[in-house]
Amino acid sequence: RDNIIGICGEFFGTVLFLLFAFAGTQTAYLHSPPVENRVGAPANTSTLLYIALSFGFSLAVSAGIFFRISGGLFNPAVTFGLVLVRAMPPIRGALLVVVQLVGGIVAAALVSALLPGPLTVGTSLGGGTSVARGLFIEMFLTSFLLLTVFFLAIERQRATFIAPVGFGLALFVAMLAGAYFTGASLNPARSFGPCVVMGNFQGYHWIYWVGPGLGSIASAGFYKLMKLLGYETANVGQHGPEIEMAASTV
């Protein structure tokens, strides 16, 4: 029963998050096409800011709604990271990945049906970014998001209740940094859904899977290292009472 509730929550949460994020992106590109993939291609910073705000705020609100139902993940890379640090059983993780991918398709289809004009919410390389660079940009951006999830949501601390806000801010900052170069996916479901609806997969579409996957592995490794070193005792006042009590005996 709990798994069914969590899976349903994750599906509807993913649809809600990406529906409004995609709608914001579609609106932003009405009079400003996506960045061309050539060196020196002009960047419309107001458009990129509009898109980053759409994704960041949509994630913060959607994660806040579904945080106590499914965790408010909405991202296969985040789910993979939680499985790596053993915060989620692999079977549950696999089920969530499936519904997240389906949710991405449904959200893209809804935006395509509701809003006029061709769908322009896909991710693509821009500004002359090579495939190799795009891969590592996606890796580092995803690592940033995953570290936010690990240290705000998994760890019991005083700031855990505002974790969804942290998720949204992390995505907002990551998109400001990377949207011009790769579209700042950080989320296979976010890139996969529009490709399915548009029927167009770029030859480098794989970087939006491998990059976030590598980011999950890197951030999980750093998190496990910090746990191994006992980071909880470094700044005791910021942790929950159980951790503070344990640290006081060291």
UniProtKB/TrEMBL annotation:
Alphabetically ordered keywords of this record: Membrane, Repeat, Transmembrane, Transmembrane helix, Transport
Protein name as it appears in the record: Aquaporin-like protein
Record-linked Pfam families: MIP (PF00230)
Lineage: superkingdom: Eukaryota
Transmembrane segments: 7-29, 49-74, 94-115, 135-154, 161-186, 206-223
Cellular localization per UniProt: Membrane
Cited InterPro entries: Aquaporin-like, Aquaporin_transptr, MIP
GO cellular component: plasma membrane
GO MF annotations in UniProt: water channel activity
Catalytic activity: H2O(in) = H2O(out)
Family: Belongs to the MIP/aquaporin (TC 1.A.8) family.
Gene3D superfamilies xref list: Glycerol uptake facilitator protein (1.20.1080.10)
Keyword Transport: yes
Annotated membrane topology: Multi-pass membrane protein
